[in-house]
Amino acid sequence: MVLTRLVIAFKRAQHWLVAAAVLSLLRLISLLPAKKAIEFVDRMARRIGPLTPRHRLALFNLKKAYPEKTEAEREQIAVDMWGNMARLAAEYVFLDKLFDFDPESTEPGMIEVEGIEYFTKLRDSGKPFIVFTAHTGNFELLPVAAATFDLDVMALFRPPNNPYIARKVLATRRTAMGHLVPSRAGAAFTLARRLEAGGGVGMLVDQKFHKGAQTTFFGLEARTNPLLAKLVRQFECEVYPARSIRLPGGRHRLVVEAAIEIPRNADGSVDVAATSQMLNDKVESWVREYPGQWQWFHDRWNIKHTLK
């Protein structure tokens, strides 16, 4: 019992120290001009990221996904990924300055949006819908864009493992991104109630899920969360793909695509396995287009044990 308490206390202290360091760095960054600060953390991450254990996992994943690429090409993708991740963290600090999209403006800004007609359609339809995305570019900008069109979307998200950082991130997201539902027990019921009331739900669909549907991703076996497909089966709501793309000069393009056609069984019901695979295929197409903007350091294929 005493040993268990000591281990828990040590882990809590470790989380606190890491959070204190990260949050202090972000506060320091906030004192700099936005563009310079974001470029600075990008350069630093490209140097520090390759020195971390996660870099090894990223390269291993890249070798599995892109066996045809050279080691140098895969290394460059991984380095670009670290730059993207650093920018994502720094952009939290400057979100109010970064997001300058105005639907009424004729002048281009840092944010451009494709699929405005879908935002307005969803806002005015009064029908339930699901928008799905992946960890590409600055995906956090999508719910901010939705709010710009007065579109209220309840987003399912996975909090960071560090509880102190998780609380800070959640507070920031609640300020700018509307309703949030942490990915844990009971989340599915909360989302179902939103859809039942005719509202909208946002979901990230590229996370590992231990007991999910059997699918493939980049030709490799992967488990995929079947929640989206099950919600569509229950509420017959439309499903829209959306993504964020980083552009040169620190700019972003947010894209909302037309509703996808959901695979059906012979009796007309939603084919959960086929729908889950379709989500993977869509995300894979996005990642292949901009591989350096996806988070390769996650154990999406449950292969970390092979590195030990």
UniProtKB/TrEMBL annotation:
Domain of life: Bacteria
InterPro entries (UniProt xref): LipA_acyltrans
Xref: Pfam families: Lip_A_acyltrans
GO molecular-function terms, A-Z: acyltransferase activity
Keyword annotations from UniProtKB, A to Z: Acyltransferase, Cell inner membrane, Cell membrane, Membrane, Transferase
This protein's record includes keyword Membrane: yes
Name the UniProt record assigns to this protein: Lipid A biosynthesis lauroyl acyltransferase
Location of the protein in the cell: Cell inner membrane
Organism of this sequence: Hoeflea algicola
